[in-house]
Design brief:
By secondary structure, this protein is an alpha+beta fold. It contains 25 helices and 19 strands.
Length: about 600
């Protein structure tokens, strides 16, 4: 164990899960539990629950769950030891100094220190003769020194090992430079700087740590942009460039752009609410991060094919969330009588701050944007294309949850095509019925396959013997609810479990109990992956009749032992009965459920 169980027990006791989660999620009491909007997936109706009795959280939508330590690991993107330290700091507890995880945390801290030192090195290069090319590039892009300082922009030199040499001299090791992604190693083992002759963008997270770098070439060489690879302190899915500054904005929304330069240009123009993803499309993790700071997003991607595709993907990802979403489309500019697409940087420089403010104020909501996009695909003077337009646009409108919205947008779509509002509303109704039918069919198919329902969502946790696994889940569920049942498990060994994961959990609980430690869900946190802990929290949501706990436990143990004997070939069960049991398992029979 990384930390003593006594320390972890006190840590959990001093960080009540309701208090911790409430600082991230607005919770409302319903019955014995508290509910709110899940911070880990997008939803409008709260399916995220917190149980103060069990000291666990569980989302009935995305199935994530666990104890207070797991919550902080997920929400703050921290390792187990760093989540423990986070909670210890919150509770004003002193963390024991030992263990191998302390070393892992030390390595992580060293990478952050190294990144900060590298950022300082790149920034100081702007004043060096070798950094003049980058300084000239900033002037060409009309980025002021004040803005460059605000974002910590810098220059990587046109040399193979300038950063490597400087950081080694500062006391960092080659291994640390490799771990931070600042240097790379060739096939002959030689190390050299990853970023050379580039404008450097330090990537700073919302806690103020430099977690990565982006670099842009000064000429037309490739790759145009280069970013730090995934490291112990950086995951591109969980970071947004500029959010460390945008989170302080007084504006009512946050603007999502495509690139770092767009963010910098907007901030310099007074739009301090701009951010950008790091070389990837918008992710669920980034949406969760944004939800801490705003409830309105403005999508402002480039007005080209790739930008429109990114806009559509973002709208789909944001569908059915609590966010209000608008789309800002930049108009083309005319050059020699021909329309030319422009990005945010071009528009601000050519049209000015006021022009962008006007477009921002008049930006469309996501439905208006999608309706216009569909209309743009058809010649609405052609009757055949009108029919195809009506089919596609009605399917789009049918997905809207609000009946008033459906009526309003159906009317607008009808007017656009020159058809009656009644005809369009009828088409929307048909589309909605078709969608509902497909959903019912999918649910029926799922209900007809109980074996599939019993299988864990994660393939890595697949059950080879569903009937035994259901009983194994029952044993674990009962033990975590009632410690007095442990003496009744004396004849059941973890090795008899069909599921390796459930056997591991059961063995860990027995060890905790035998050593006099609290065998709760938080004691399992350092032993299980996030997916395994999610699965365990789901197991704990299933019902058990407390008045029949002892009989249920005996039944479960009997099923596990019979299944174990059958796997070992030791069963004395009549072959006909065995064949019947096998048939029942195939048909989804999971044994008697105690409710």
């Amino acid at each position: 164990m990384a930390f003593s169980q006594e320390f972890l027990d006190e840590l959990v006791a001093r960080n009540d899960i309701l208090d911790v989660v409430s600082s991230y999620v607005h919770l409302t009491k319903k019955g014995n539990n508290y509910f709110g909007l899940c911070p880990f997936h997008n939803e409008k109706t709260g399916s995220f629950s917190v149980s103060t009795d069990k000291q666990i959280y569980h989302c009935f939508g995305c199935k994530k769950g666990g104890g207070v330590i797991n919550f902080i690991m997920e929400e703050e993107n921290l390792s187990f030891p760093d989540a423990v330290r986070f909670l210890a700091k919150r509770a004003n507890m002193e963390v024991p100094e030992e263990t191998e995880d302390r070393e892992a945390s030390r390595r992580r801290a060293r990478i952050l220190e190294l990144n900060r030192a590298a950022a300082r090195f790149y920034y100081e290069n702007l004043n060096a003769p070798q950094g003049q090319a980058v300084l000239e590039y900033l002037k060409k892009r009309k980025i002021s020194r004040k803005t460059a300082m605000n974002f910590g922009l810098g220059a990587s030199l046109d040399q193979w090992d300038s950063l490597l040499t400087a950081m080694i001299a500062a006391g960092y090791t080659k291994g640390e430079l490799l771990a931070a992604g600042l240097v790379v190693q060739n096939s002959k083992g030689r190390l050299y700087d990853k970023f050379r002759n580039r404008l450097m963008f330090p990537v700073i997270d919302v806690r103020g740590d430099v977690v990565a770098f982006g670099g842009r070439v000064l000429d037309k060489s490739e790759p145009k942009y280069m970013n730090t690879s995934e490291t112990a302190v950086y995951s591109k899915r969980r970071v947004l460039y500029g959010l460390n500054l945008a989170k302080k904005t007084k504006r009512p929304n946050i603007i999502l752009c495509e690139g770092n330069i767009d963010v910098i240009t907007l901030h310099q123009a007074g739009f301090d609410n701009a951010v950008a993803s790091m070389g990837t499309a918008l992710t669920t993790e980034q949406i969760h991060l944004l939800s801490r700071y705003t409830k309105e997003l403005v999508l402002c991607y480039d007005n080209d094919g790739a930008g429109k595709a990114a806009t559509e993907k973002a709208i789909e990802l944001l569908r059915n969330t609590e966010f209000s979403v608008r789309v800002l489309q930049l108009p083309n500019r005319m050059v020699d009588g021909q329309p030319v697409k422009q990005d945010v940087d071009d528009f601000i420089k050519l049209q000015g701050r006021e022009a962008f403010e006007a477009i921002l104020s008049g930006s469309e909501n996501q439905v208006e944007y999608q309706l216009a996009a569909v209309a743009g695909k058809y010649d609405l003077q052609n009757d055949a294309q009108k029919v195809e337009y009506a089919k596609e646009v009605s399917a789009l409108i049918a997905r809207l949850p609000d009946a008033v919205e459906r009526e309003i947008y159906a009317g607008r779509a009808a007017a656009k095509a020159g058809i009656s509002a009644e005809a369009m509303q009828l088409e929307v109704k048909r589309s909605r019925q078709k969608q509902a039918g497909r959903e019912r069919s999918a649910l029926r198919q799922e209900a007809l396959n109980p074996v599939r329902q019993a299988q864990p969502r994660e393939r890595s946790i697949h059950y080879t013997d569903v009937r035994s696994a259901m009983a194994e889940e029952g044993v674990i569920r009962l033990l975590l609810r009632d410690e007095s049942l442990y003496p009744l498990c004396g004849g059941l060994a973890a090795e008899e479990f069909s599921s390796p994961l459930l056997g591991k959990i059961y063995g860990a609980l027995l060890s905790c109990q035998g050593e006099g430690r609290c065998p709760g869900i938080n004691a399992l946190a350092p032993l299980l992956t996030a997916e395994e802990m999610d699965h365990l929290s789901g197991i704990l949501q299933k019902p058990e009749d407390k008045s029949r706990s002892r009989q249920a436990l005996a039944d479960y143990i009997g099923i596990i032992k019979d299944a174990c004997q059958a796997r070992r070939g030791d069963s004395q069960v009549d072959p006909l009965l065995a064949a019947q049991e096998k048939y029942k398992t195939k048909k989804g029979y999971g044994g008697k459920q105690h409710e």
